[in-house]
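A further point concerns the way the authors explain their paired sequence and structure data. Since the whole study asks how a given chain folds, the encoding of that fold should be made plain. A single example would do more here than another paragraph of explanation. An entry of this sort, consisting of the sequence and the corresponding backbone structure tokens, reads as follows:

_____
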Amino acid sequence: MKPSSIKRNAILNVIRTVVAVIFPIITYPYAARVVGVVNIGKVNYIASIVTYFTIFAMFGIDTYGVRECAAVRDDRDRASTLASRLWSYSLITTFIALIGLGLMSFIYVPLHSYLPVILIQSLSVIFTTVGADWINVVYEDYTYTTIRGIAINVFNLIVLFTCVHTPEDYLIYAFLTISWIVIAGVLNVVHIRKFVTLLPVRVDDIRQLTRALLPFVVNNLSVAIYVGMDMTILGFMHGDYRVGIYSSAVKIYTMVKTVFIAVFSVTLARLSAHFKNGQREEFRRLISGLISVFTILAFPAMLGLILYADPIILIIAGPEYAEASTSLRLLAVALVFAAFGGIATRCANVPMGYEKLNTRATITAALENTLLNLPMIWVFCEIGAAITTILAELTVLMMCLVNFRCEHINWKSAIVWRDVRDTVFGLIGIGAVYACVNLIAPADLIAAIAGMVLSVPVYFGIFILMKNEIVTDGIRKIVSRLKKRA
């Protein structure tokens, strides 16, 4: 199978992800106001718990499967055999996960009042496995996933505005938060047949496969703990209201982070193929490009969220959630560490076979996060949760960088310093726009929106003036495609 253009895949996946971000920007303000802080907190509290069972159900196959199947994707028989084996294994772990979730729900008395939400959210455990969306990543089928994502978001938009009108409709909202997993899972059952023949088979080497997958699932669970345990502990200590406040900041943080994850997903299969086939220069060049792209995108995202946190919260969630602005500013800092940590863990370590390093780093971050969350959340509520998230993301990144040095991997050579220089000048431009807006119309919502909108052309305009290759090349290609269509 001839691989698609990495840039085309990136554009398609970013389009799909941006759509997945834009629709929540449209729907979340309505849901946050209609469903209410407490019910939003209730849904997100249960979602933070169900996430651990969903990760156990997948057991790292979404990452391991992409790496292993990428090397044999041109041979349908071999790919089908391997995919069926992994999928069958995931059916076993899903059954165990569902039993575990059921027992926890009935044994832990405080969860009894949440049983309807738990039943709805548990669908994500089933359909994440059944859908095997990682196969689409192996074959880089981003045209399908982009169209599918747009269709599902349109469906969610229609259902939300036609069916959710009062706080009592929060169960419908709970379903809409996981509906994309359910619908995608159903569609995938048919779609992935064009690539592989997926059948339940007997897994004879279950112990060997478990050993191979264990670093991936431990890594994923550790990430989920240091990313989501704060929500769980916050709900346990301070109730649904504080979870509702914090979840609005996390929602915005996640919207931005989702765009970054889209780029990771696009490059993983290609990077794995490059490394396994001995194409070290192509591998290094792609890693270098990723560092430049995230330098250009992550830092302005951080600065924008810090400067405009108050109006962003007001627009996205409403005045009831105004307390979330401080948490959002702190999470904006974590965003940068998460972006570069993602390059190190998913884009570098996984293709190079350093998944055990990922496991060590994420276990350390998870333990650190859990131990710090207990006193920090008890004293500072959601602000403490945001601070521990920063520390956890920083820990993962630093442990990876230290290991690269021990393994004599010169990560500094992958940094394009002129892109760093251009980014610094671009950030100064964003700061200047904010200062002017604040001087002319302080605390004015319309002025703040104008400042956010104006920051984008100012930022990239500086890159054009500096003749930055990544930005100018991207603009040139967009203009060329528009001319061809005209």
About this structure: The chain has a mean pLDDT of 86. The chain has two domains: 6-415, 416-486. The radius of gyration is 22 Å. The longest helix spans residues 240-276.
